[in-house]
Structures are given as C-alpha cells and as structure tokens.
Amino acid sequence: xxxxxxxTLTQLAALLALGAVLLALGLAIxxxxxxxxxxxxxxxxxxxxxxxxxxxxxxxxxxALLALAGAIAQGLFRNPLADPYLxxxxxxxxxxxxxxxxxxxxxxxxxxxxxxxxxxxxxxxGAVGAVLLTLVLARGVTQSLRLLLAGVVVGxxxxxxxxxxxxxxxxxxxxxQAFMLGSTGYVGWSAVQVMAASFALCLLVxxxxxxxxxxxTLGEDTARSLGQRLTLIRLLLIAAxxxxxxxxxxxxxxxxxxxxxxxxxxxxxxxxTHGALLLLSPLTGGALLLAADIAARWVIAPQELxxxxxxxxxxxxxxxxxxxxxxxxxxxxGGAR
Amino acid sequence: MNGAARxxxxxxxxxxxxxxxxxxxxxxxxxxxxxSLGPREVLRPLALAPAPAAxxxxxxxxxxxxxxxxxxxxxxxxFDGALTLDxxxxxxxxxxxxxxxxxxxxxxxxxSDDLTAYDVAMLGRLPHQPWLAPASAADHAAVEHAxxxxxxxxxxxxxxxxxxxxxxxRVLLARALAVRSGVLLMDEPLAHLDPPHQSDWARLVRxxxxxxxxxxxxxxxxxxxxxxxxxxxxxxxxxxHQGAPxxxxxxxxxxxxxxxxxxxxxxxxxxxxxxx
Lengths: 337, 276
Description:
Chain A is mostly helical. Chain A has helices at residues 6-28, 42-76, 89-104, 108-137, 144-168, 173-181, 189-208, 210-216, 220-225, 230-252, 258-267, 274-298, 307-330, and strands at residues 29-30, 33-34.
C-alpha cells in the first residue's frame, strides 16, 4: 500500500467529522423528539448515559461492522453484489433466534437455559455456525464459486428451518419480525464493548489483507503469482467477515443494505485501493446506520420506526440511482468502455 | 490517447537501451508426466527449461495446451511431475521469493474499476514489499520505469476499468515488468495490441533478454513468434519440436501442426508466416 493519498485523508477526516456530528445529534434526540442534553437534570443525565449514548455509539459500530463485512465480502468474492449475509450468516442468526424463542415456550427448564444463552448469544452462535456449515459444504475456502453456492444453500435451508420454528409456534412471530427488521433500541454498554472489540480486530485483519485483495482484483492466478498466500488470507478474511457480521446481527438483528451500500458509496467517489476502501467503508456504514437510527427515533416520535426499514428504503433507493447513473455513463450494464 | 505513441526504450548516456537490474536469473525447469483438467488429460510427458538471456515462444494450434503449460510453469496448476527453480522444488521456495524470480502475465486478467493504472502496476512490486510496509522509492522508480516503457504513464491516475483493451494490456504488461524478475512468463501478451505496439512489445522483450532475463511467451501471432530465439511447437498436449526460428525443422513442425496451411517466407531478412 503506498502512502495514503490526500483525497483519502480528506475523506477520512470528513467521515470522522460526520460521525461526530451525528453522534451529537444522536445524544440530543430521544423518544420525545428533540431534547438536547442541556435540558433536564439528573434524569436527563441518566437517559443520556444509559440509553442514548450506548444506542448511538452502538448504531455507529453496528453500521461500521456491517460495512466492513460488506467491503471484505465484495473484495474477497470479487462481486459487487456480495453482502455480509452471503455465507448464510443471516439465516443462521434467524434460526438461532427462532430456535431460542421456540425452546423458551417448551418448558420452564428449557426457558431458563434459553434465557442464559440470550437472543444475542443465539444469534451469534447461529451466524457463526452457518458460516462453518458453508465452509464444510464448500470443502474449504479455496474455491470462491463453491463458497458462494454453499452460502446460498445454507441460507435457504437454515432460513426455512427458522420459518418452520415460527410456524410451529406463532407466538414468536412478533419477536422474529422485530429481529428480521433490525433494531438498535436495545443496545447497552456491554453490547458496545463487544462490537468495539470485534470491530478493532476485524479492521486489523482486513487492513492487513488489503494488498492481497488488490492483487485479487486481477484474478486468483495473478494474485498467487505475486506471492500472495490466498488460502490463509481467505481463511482470515472469512473469519473477520463472520465475526463482524455475527457481532452486529447478534446485537441489532438483520439490518438490511448497509453492508452492501456503504462500499459502493465509497467506490462512487473515485478509484480506490482496498486499503482505503476497508477504512472508509466502515466510517460510511457507521454514519449511515447512525443517521438511520436518528431518523427512526425522530420521524414519528414518540413512536419509533424499525431502523431496518429506513436502511432498506435508503439503501434500495441509492442502489437504484447508482444503477441508472451507471447506465447513463456506460450505455448499459457491463457495457464495453 | 497516445494512439500513435510507441514503447520507448530507456536509453543510457551512450544511446544504448538501458539494462534493468533483474538480480540473479534462476533456472526454471518443468518435467511433466501428466496434467489433467477434470477428466481430460491436457498435457502429456514433456520437459522444458527456458534458457536465460533468451526469448522462448510457445506456439501451436488452439487446444494444444500452450496456456496450460505456461500456468504449470508458473506453479499455478498442480500436475504429476516436477517444477524446479535452481534445482530446488517449487514448493520449497518461500512464496514471495519465488514471486520475485518468476513473474507471470495471464491471459484476460480481470479489470477492476477500483484501482488506478498506477495502483495496478504497483502490484508488481508486492513480492518486494514486506508485509504492511509502504512502497519504497525503488518501488516507485520501478513502476514509473515500467509504465513509461509500455507508454502507459499518462493514464496512471485513471481507473483500469475505464481504459480500452489495448491500453489496459499495456498497464498489465507494466505490472509484470515492474516485478523485475529473472524469468518472465506471458500468456498471449499481444491480445488487444495494435501492430505497432506488437513490434514495440517485441523490442521490450529484446531489452529484457539483453538484461539477462529469460522470457517465455505463448503467442498466436506467428510473425512475432518467429522473432524469438527458440520456438516451442506444441500439439495435442505435447512439445513436438523445439528449435530456432530459421531452422527448417522448425518450419516443418509448424507446417505439420497447422496442417500445412501456412506459407513461411523470408522477407527483408525476417521470417514471416502467411495463411496458405
């Protein structure tokens, strides 16, 4: 990686500043709409510290984790449509949560056990378990296409497992729906700590592999001919991808589109190496999800919208716009330049 | 842009083409018993050891196994047999050290919208860079030299994906040259290059050879291949002949594998092949 370009540094500074502004907004907006920290006494301090601060920081971290996972997935599989959920993470997490909710209704003893695992634990175990199953079915990490297909199979099978649990006990439908839509409403300080630690670890692994991902853009053979140990790098990146996605999904449910859109947004600003992409995408994803979270609290306050609906609306519209812009530029998808 | 420009040779004070320091040129050797892709045996018993300070061109009809042989020589395909570098098994070399000795330019390397032409050429320096270390002055100098050699320096800030096929091929060629390896393997490097740039490519190869490097290229353009030092003629997964381009036995071998549908003539001191 040659030294970071001036443009990347400017973007980095701008995204950090945007994150700080959004964080301040996140602290100033509560369930009753605009209520900055200058008003109210001890109660407000409590609300700020115990609710708004962890929720806002947590939303930023979850967005950053998903965007980092998305950037890793798109680089690793050399597919701009790859997202954090492509190795079966989302279906696995859903199955974990559905199984937990189902077990809770079976007997008091099972419920006690389920409570100890918790939704977070079940979602994380499901997400990571799904990736492991994908790896087993793909017989390792050496073939990208096999991994993608195995991810699709695992996604479909585990997803139908989750649907089966929900069908067998319709009482859990509402909780499942909330999980599927995603929410940042229940993020506390412990969740923030887990996500921050996961983010630091995954970012380190990703940045350490960034030049290998650059080489991979020229094809696997070229990357290998340049002395890149692709099997090791794939393993590390898939571990980082799973940890980042698992940590975000476990705390906030299945938040749509952030992981797909954030890397695209960064790319739309100009050619970029993976070193810059893997650094800027999380900052973009964090800002996106925090902005969506603020909107979710504000738009129909004191009611709250599920944040996943806002990210889906924003992300979907952005991708649609991007698609049309590209078409105008190149005269058709994938057209000759 | 620069459509008519040619690959300029770097000149030293005396006007001779400047030599590139390729370090020690190792001896690459492949002894292959069999190579199969799926159920199909693509390569049959063969041996090849490209000479240093020489250009070897591999030619033959479609499906002869030329590209597969080159990939096997680059250590990119497993096969039954032995691949050695300086007599030491390929797998015994650390991956990066191996990559500093043997560079490979593939056929239809993917194009990415994300990297600039300069970033792509800089990838050629990966084998020289310690993990996480930024590019050194020597890396930047090697990249600039390679991009100027292939006349792609003017597009260094453009995304690779925004370049035309020929422009992209010259950036990818710069990427392979920037490795500064003793052995350079190129699979159909002339794809998308117009005739003047094909001649310039041949001159670049000559400069590389003058610096002591071993160059091996798979070529469909027989007229360019006939300028090589050695022609390796392949058919049905075998090497049927190895020889100099002016050797009548080489011409016979070419006629055989191309079903006598060639006219090989000497024009202005150079061998050319025409469709019969």
